[in-house]
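REQUEST ID: PR-0412
SUBMITTED BY: lab tech R.K.
PRIORITY: routine
TASK: structure prediction, single protein chain
INPUT:
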Amino acid sequence: MGTVRVKLDPSQPGAWPKGRVNYRLLDATTEEELAAQQAADDAESMQDAARFARRVRRRLGLTQLEFARRIGVSLDTIRNWEQGKRCPTGAAKALLKVLDKAPEAALLALG
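STATUS: complete
OUTPUT:
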């Protein structure tokens, strides 16, 4: 199957190619089904965050306890992240990203 490039004129949305939306199926979806899908998506997202936190720690060659001490959080926090019970947010999420991309600089800055 080849790639087809299409130029779209924003002033003529009616001329755009039809998407692959099954409107009958979409209209038949219940609120319960939407809620179940949202829960499944949230669970998958938590597992992605858990895998990321675990990967960063392992790449640094640290145990959970050593990692917790180096970044200034409790051991329980690290365990909860890696088990997918909690998801790093805010500064912790940013720190994990920096540790992933520039581990030496991040560890040096953390002292």
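NOTES: The mean pLDDT is 90.
REVIEWED BY: pending
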